[in-house]
Amino acid sequence: MRCAVGMDIGTTSTVGILLGLPDQVLGLASRPVTLHSPQPGWAEEDPREWWDNATAILRQLIAECRVAPQAIGAVGVTGMLPAVVLLDRNDELIRPSIQQSDARCAEEVAELAAEMSPDVFLARTGNGINQQLVTAKLRWLERHEPSAFARIATVMGSYDYINHRLSGERAVEQNWALEAGFTDLAHGTIDDDLVALAHISRDAVPRRTDSHAVLGNVTKAAARATGLPVGVPVVGGAADHVASALAAGVLGPGDVLLKFGGSVDVLVATDRPVPDARMYLDYHLIPGLYVPNGCMATGGSALNWFAATFAGSERDAATAAGQTLHQRLDRMAADIPPGAGGVRVLPFFLGEKTPIHDPARRASFSGLTLSHGLAHLWRALLEAYAYAIRHHVDVLNEMGHRTENFMVSDGGAESRVWMQIVADVLQRPVRQLQGHPGSCLGAAWTAAIGTGLASDWRGISAFVRQRAPILPDPATAAVYAQGYRAYRQQADRAGHERLREEIAHGLSH
Q: What is the pLDDT confidence band of residue 351, given thresholds at 50, 70 and 90?
């Protein structure tokens, strides 16, 4: 049996998978990751922890699955995007990584928008000028940590760094280069002028590699650390959300994945790129396809906060019933009719990313009366994220993309109540997935394809099953159509009010 390994360098954990080809999951293993926020809005991690996790996981998988190391024929790594990892001329880390969710560079984003027309930048790079750009983060470092900035010899992403430790090669995967703001979309190459906007030398950005292309082989040092054989091919890797979409079955135009993790993601496959500042744009792992996508600032993270802050009184009842606190709240919300009794939520607890792109936007609960209780608030939260998903779907449709086959994944997708609300708001069936281990599966399959151990991208479907669809209830259509209109109007009104406040503040100064 030939095997492939996939590693996911995630924000909260490192996960590894060992596949027995063509269709067996031989083992899964994970290690926690520490997210540091030394100042408000900052998000940093230690790449050395990622590597330590990866080496421990690889050794664990080989030992526990009783696989001869020589059977492993490919390694693929995925990870959060676009993290910023900096190396000096001795290949030593300069500082902790700056994560994609880091919001320290608002001033630098504004400077970029003033220097280069946002419309021109969007047309050239496929993505808008926003806080995720590596360019903006590097400018922040130049201003606030000049000694660290002066030492930069290499800039790369999270999974690029692990690939570097495995193979000794310096390369950046295509989607890191794209979301970093360095790729000219029309030509598919890293552009000197775009790199220059980051005020770094051109050679600080390594060569660009396709996701499934073999970029190098496991070195002797990496073999000693991981237990892998020397010479195993290492492929370019993958952005975690794109790898997760592949594993979920987003394989052609019209396929959509809704990811319900700490944030809520909306991803669709398409055969043509349509740059739009409201959404992000990535390459699909399948050559010739693209993945326009949106990522909300919150999702499960806000539900966790609400449950911990306001629902502690239900914890004992949940335990007595053999439920989690979330399951208890779902059961209570199921008894509340659609519309949550008029309670409405704007779920902008950390500002909002797509499609609003406003880090200063704030959350609100409205429509409250003394007749409302905890169940109304919980249902209103679930409905708010369903409305936000529909907003994303509407934007994707406006961009000309088909949204036909909806799959749902990650922890929040296990909530039958929440998924029924999503189906009702969209008035489309949604399918829960069984056996979806996450992005690591997409990374392993990409490695198998790139090394010739597998030949059909659709073969990944053998690992994940789609459950029976959750069908929309036509009786809720009118209520949720009205609720969605109210959500959009309220969100637009909040945005206009904040803009007026900014203008007034500017005039007063």
A: confident
